[in-house]
Amino acid sequence: MTKGKRTLDAVEEDRGPNEAGPDPSAPITRRGVLTSFLTGKPMEIPEQDLLGRCRFVSEFEKLNRIGEGTYGIVYRARDTKTDKVVALKKVRMEHEKDGLPVSGLREISVLLGCRHENIVHLKEVVVGRSLESIFLAMEYCEQDLASLLDNMQAPFSESQVKCIMLQVLRGLRYLHRNFVVHRDLKVSNLLMTDKGCVKIADFGLARWFGLPLRPMTPRVVTLWYRAPELLLQARTQTTSVDMWAAGCILGELLGHRPLLPGRTELGQLELIVDLLGTPSDAIWPEFSSLPALQSFTLKQQPYNNLKQRFPWLSAAGLRLLNFLFMYDPKKRATAEECLQSSYFKEAPLPCDPKLMPTFPQHRNLKTKAPANPPPAPTQETTTGNNTADPSLHLPAISDLLGSLVKKRRIE
Ligand SMILES: Nc1ncnc2c1ncn2[C@@H]1O[C@H](COP(=O)(O)OP(=O)(O)OP(=O)(O)O)[C@@H](O)[C@H]1O
């Protein structure tokens, strides 16, 4: 039984035997109890919150489009009920004949179970005119690190880099302790609020893991941040793929440019070998039996060039990078181990997030319309006039997920 299923079961049980589901005309007064994906313990859902009926997207006023990824378009929007600004991510449904895409289900189910200051907070799931038009209303973060890095006048100082990395590592420690592997960590998936709080976002590829480790598709994680075991098609993967990506992010922040910007999988492997030397069975016992190595051999390069790449970095900083770039995933640093690193305890010390500089909101300045603009979220429901009619059955998130999971099960 998957963890996702457990929660859906819990929601069904919570209704009680005589309750057929939400009464569409009843006011939302009930407090719900949902079994946490993470702890397995019941967690209380506040009134009108996630177990309440999903609101319609027409209750949000679209302000501007702030991002578009593989799995969805993201808008800055104002919740007309609370007047709060949120990020509204429309789950991409293109080519989905069979219900909600798995990435959308994963993102919703993982984020619903997460509560940590360094993980983006999913406030609620909002529906469009049809049940299958779904938006995630998330806390709004003013920046993403990728566009910030592209637009900053001066690079982050080392103490700012440490402040960012500490927060990323705390978020990762929380996820990994709770058996979630993110699998797509990169600078564009790191958001930052105007208070300097860094949040890990985009859980479209996230998975729960457990023992025994089950095979997962190796073609995850954006190439530049992809761990060698994924590039070499290892059949199992662990939280260590996120730690490799964290190493790439640390290198990128310190070096002010992507650390390993490969164009192809083979090119990516070559960049890794150029930087770290060729792995061997001596340092990584499973190395020569990895599937990809049955058809080709890696070039020989005997040197670790991290010190040449970062000549100004302290011994503690180099130790941390080397620990994150252990070829053998079993030996690679965990988030907890990184947080203990003396690098974060030596000068220059990490700055206080509240003292991080504020930056112009580049994403909101973008005015260029896309070639084929997708429908704005507010247009989704303007013809439906749904919110005005109290007798309409507004789907509860449990119903929504339940009906969609019937069609598509999380892998
Ligand atoms: N909560 C948020 N607050 C502010 N901006 C956000 C938020 N969530 C996402 N964004 C912006 O939207 C962009 C795309 O979002 P996201 O990464 O979740 O989409 P995706 O389709 O899963 O992307 P990818 O192609 O990277 O997998 C982000 O890089 C960021 O700029």
From TrEMBL:
<dbReference type="GO" id="GO:0007346">
    <property type="term" value="P:regulation of mitotic cell cycle"/>
</dbReference>
<dbReference type="InterPro" id="IPR000719">
    <property type="entry name" value="Prot_kinase_dom"/>
</dbReference>
<feature type="binding site">
    <location>
        <position position="89"/>
    </location>
    <ligand>
        <name>ATP</name>
    </ligand>
</feature>
<dbReference type="GO" id="GO:0030030">
    <property type="term" value="P:cell projection organization"/>
</dbReference>
<keyword id="KW-0808">Transferase</keyword>
<keyword id="KW-0067">ATP-binding</keyword>
<dbReference type="InterPro" id="IPR050108">
    <property type="entry name" value="CDK"/>
</dbReference>
<dbReference type="InterPro" id="IPR011009">
    <property type="entry name" value="Kinase-like_dom_sf"/>
</dbReference>
<dbReference type="InterPro" id="IPR008271">
    <property type="entry name" value="Ser/Thr_kinase_AS"/>
</dbReference>
<keyword id="KW-0963">Cytoplasm</keyword>
<feature type="compositionally biased region" description="Basic and acidic residues">
    <location>
        <begin position="1"/>
        <end position="17"/>
    </location>
</feature>
<dbReference type="InterPro" id="IPR017441">
    <property type="entry name" value="Protein_kinase_ATP_BS"/>
</dbReference>
<comment type="function">
    <text>Cyclin-dependent kinase that phosphorylates the transcription factor ETS2 (in vitro) and positively controls its proteasomal degradation (in cells). Involved in the regulation of actin cytoskeleton organization through the phosphorylation of actin dynamics regulators such as PKN2. Is a negative regulator of ciliogenesis through phosphorylation of PKN2 and promotion of RhoA signaling.</text>
</comment>
<keyword id="KW-0547">Nucleotide-binding</keyword>
<keyword id="KW-0206">Cytoskeleton</keyword>
<dbReference type="InterPro" id="IPR044093">
    <property type="entry name" value="STKc_CDK10"/>
</dbReference>
<comment type="subunit">
    <text>Heterodimer with CCNQ, the interaction is required for kinase activity. Interacts with ETS2. Interacts with PRK2.</text>
</comment>
<dbReference type="Pfam" id="PF00069">
    <property type="entry name" value="Pkinase"/>
</dbReference>
<protein>
    <recommendedName>
        <fullName>Cyclin-dependent kinase 10</fullName>
    </recommendedName>
</protein>
<keyword id="KW-0966">Cell projection</keyword>
<comment type="similarity">
    <text>Belongs to the protein kinase superfamily. CMGC Ser/Thr protein kinase family. CDC2/CDKX subfamily.</text>
</comment>
<feature type="domain" description="Protein kinase">
    <location>
        <begin position="60"/>
        <end position="344"/>
    </location>
</feature>
<dbReference type="GO" id="GO:0005634">
    <property type="term" value="C:nucleus"/>
</dbReference>
<keyword id="KW-0418">Kinase</keyword>
<keyword id="KW-0723">Serine/threonine-protein kinase</keyword>
<dbReference type="GO" id="GO:0004693">
    <property type="term" value="F:cyclin-dependent protein serine/threonine kinase activity"/>
</dbReference>
<keyword id="KW-0970">Cilium biogenesis/degradation</keyword>
<feature type="region of interest" description="Disordered">
    <location>
        <begin position="358"/>
        <end position="394"/>
    </location>
</feature>
<dbReference type="GO" id="GO:0005524">
    <property type="term" value="F:ATP binding"/>
</dbReference>
<keyword id="KW-0597">Phosphoprotein</keyword>
<feature type="region of interest" description="Disordered">
    <location>
        <begin position="1"/>
        <end position="30"/>
    </location>
</feature>
